[in-house]
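Extended Data, record Lon proteolytic domain-containing protein
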Amino acid sequence: MPAVTSRARTLAACAVPVAALLAAAVFAPLPFSLAQPGLTADVLGSKKGEPVITVSGAETRKTSGELRMTTIAATDPAADIGLDDVIDGWFRTDRAVMPRDAVYPVGDNPAEIERHNAAEMRKSQSTAVSAALGSLGRSPDGVEVELRLDDVGGPSAGLMFALGIVDKLAGDGSGGDLTGGRTIAGTGTITAGGEVGPVGGVPLKTQAAKRDGASVFLVPAAECADARTELPKGLRLIPVKTLDGAVAALKALEHGGEVPAC
């Protein structure tokens, strides 16, 4: 029998700790969350029997079609995500692996997360009202808007809230709806000045939109490339940078004008 060389003995000795490290990596929790398409909600519709958007101090229109805000659903912040979960997530189109601190920037305390998300939603709603009224030249002193969608957190519904307010108050400006009777979905933060910002998780949100009947998806222009990676068949992307730009794009879609594309 040939003598065991020094190199072979070294490799054999290293194999055990390497195998142990690989096994530990497979089963050890990792700082990631798994996300999937979440719920969508029509901001022109009702929630628990009450309109999502209520306007007082100004006449509102009866609208048709839907404007759906979109979300992602992530694993619990305390969930143990192992290497096998991460690998599985990379190869699935209906699931995404995201850094846990990107999904839960305030840590893993459920109460703190809930407070943070609620505060972000309230801020989003407030800026959406300011953006919509500013776009229409209406004064907040004369028009009061109340938004009801308390069980969805975060800032990413700002654009859709603002569009819903514009549609309720003015439509497309010629007697028609911004939606043209379609189901329009989208995502994006918004500033009081009407600027639309990126949100993350867009590929999953496009899947949620298609699942719930949308034919058009409004995406922050900065996230066009992300939105195209897993774009469901039959869902049209429209990039937007501002609220006024989103309104103009929807009008063009309805009346045969030039519609922006990713």
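Summary. The domain at 36-74+109-255 is CATH 3.30.230 (Ribosomal Protein S5; domain 2).
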